[in-house]
């Protein structure tokens, strides 16, 4: 697939799955052996079902889920995506009850796509920033 086609698959992931909760798209776009690497969530399930669980978990915590692509770079079977996320803390997270606070985080996703399917991804995001925004982690002392 071309670089532009691979970038479009990531856009579909964001629009149809993360923002739209379209589980049929997961079955279409994810390889059976898909693996996600996230230092905050090291023990995730694999394959399409593991990805559905991940998305469902985040969507249950952040209501009004709005994941946006800021920039993308593609080369070969890899797509790098800088993203931002907006939502409202509406579900428990790290022992913190829903606060109703608006949150903003950003991060990067590196996707490896083979034959039109996501096979592996690496994500790095401002986890500490999110946890501070909802009060799960206190701000640094001055």
Compact description:
The chain has 142 residues and is an alpha+beta fold.
Can you offer a commentary on this structure?
This protein has 142 residues and is of the alpha+beta class. The model has no long low-confidence stretch (mean pLDDT 96). Helix content is 32%, strand content 39%. Strands 1-5-4-3-2 form a 5-stranded mixed sheet.
Key descriptive features of the protein:
single chain; alpha+beta; 5-stranded mixed beta sheet; 4 helices; globular
Q: What is the number of beta strands?
A: 5
Low-confidence stretches: none
Rounded average pLDDT: 96
Roughly how much helix do the residues carry, as a percent range? 25-40%
Category from helices, strands and their pairing: alpha+beta
Form type: globular
- Walk across the major sheet and give the strand order: 1-5-4-3-2
Strand percent estimate = 35-45%
**So how many helices?**
4
Distance between the termini: 51 Å
Radius of gyration: 15 Å
Topology summary:
Blueprint: H1 3-18, H2 23-29, E1 30-37, H3 47-61, E2 62-75, E3 78-89, E4 102-114, E5 117-125, H4 127-133
Parallel strand pairs: 1-5
Antiparallel strand pairs: 2-3, 3-4, 4-5
Helix pairs in contact: 1-2, 2-3
């Amino acid at each position: 697939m071309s670089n532009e086609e691979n970038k479009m698959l990531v856009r579909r992931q964001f629009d149809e799955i993360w923002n739209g909760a379209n589980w049929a798209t997961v079955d279409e776009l994810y390889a059976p052996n898909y693996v996600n690497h996230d230092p905050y969530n090291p023990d995730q399930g694999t394959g399409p079902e593991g990805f559905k669980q991940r998305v469902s978990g985040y969507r249950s915590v952040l209501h009004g889920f709005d994941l946006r692509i800021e920039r993308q770079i593609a080369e070969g079977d890899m797509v790098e995506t800088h993203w931002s996320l907006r939502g409202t803390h509406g579900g428990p997270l790290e022992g913190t009850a829903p606060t109703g606070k608006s949150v903003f985080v950003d991060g990067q996703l590196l996707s490896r796509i083979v034959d039109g399917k996501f096979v592996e991804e690496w994500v790095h995001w401002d986890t500490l920033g999110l946890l501070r925004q909802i009060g799960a982690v206190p701000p640094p002392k001055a």
